[in-house]
Amino acid sequence: MVEPIDPGVDVGHVHLKVADVDRALGFYCGILGFELMQRWGVDAAFISAGGYHHHIGLNSWSSKGGSPPPPGATGLFHTAIRYPTRRALADALRRISEAGWPLEGASDHGVSEALYLADPDRNGVELYWDRPRDRWPMAPDGKGVEMGTAPLDLDDLIAELRD
């Protein structure tokens, strides 16, 4: 058996091929609220939350004017963006709603609550928050978590902003 990876490892950033960097920035910065950290000409941009050098890279080096992969093709299923609190996720829902951007799904996974949508290039995007670990549903044998997919009550989520 292979030894597990160091528990301090995390995913530092994702780099997406897009057809139009400005259009992608309109979504990630203009709707979701990420900050532009650096621009490399017209073909690349690096964005983040909280001043990190970049959480998401966007480039059109080999994809300018391109189209999304066809259904049934391999590739990235979605990029998951974790919010620190349920209230922060509710604010993301508010931003998406106010922009008129369509949601493709909303799920309660037991360990987390998630919103699903696609960016302008049809890259899947999951926006979610994790419940505290002591509230995660555990598998009956006690070995791991028991995740599921139940509908997420969007009215209850958005009510977080009224408190």
- β-strand number: 9
Which sequence of strands runs across the widest sheet? 5-8-7-6-9
> What is the percent of helical residues?
10-25%
Shape: globular
Report the C-alpha radius of gyration, rounded. Answer: 17 Å
H and E order: EHEEEEHEEEEH
Descriptive notes:
By secondary structure, the chain is α+β, with helices and mostly antiparallel strands. It has two domains: 12-64, Roll (2,3-Dihydroxybiphenyl 1,2-Dioxygenase, domain 1); 77-163, 2,3-Dihydroxybiphenyl 1,2-Dioxygenase, domain 1, CATH 3.10.180. It has three helices and nine strands. It has a five-stranded mixed β-sheet with strand order 5-8-7-6-9. Strands 1-4-3-2 form a four-stranded mixed β-sheet, with helices on one face. The N and C termini lie far apart (49 Å). The mean pLDDT is 95.
Give the topology.
Layout: E1 14-17, H1 21-28, E2 35-40, E3 44-48, E4 56-59, E5 79-83, H2 86-99, E6 105-108, E7 112-118, E8 124-130, E9 150-151, H3 154-158
Parallel strand pairs: 1-4, 5-8
Antiparallel strand pairs: 2-3, 3-4, 6-7, 6-9, 7-8
Question: Key features?
Answer:
2 domains; alpha+beta; 163 residues; 3 helices; 2,3-Dihydroxybiphenyl 1,2-Dioxygenase, domain 1; four-stranded mixed beta sheet; globular; five-stranded mixed beta sheet
Can I get a quick summary?
This protein has three helices and nine strands. The chain has helices spanning 21-28, 86-99, 154-158, and strands spanning 14-17, 35-40, 44-48, 56-59, 79-83, 105-108, 112-118, 124-130, 150-151.
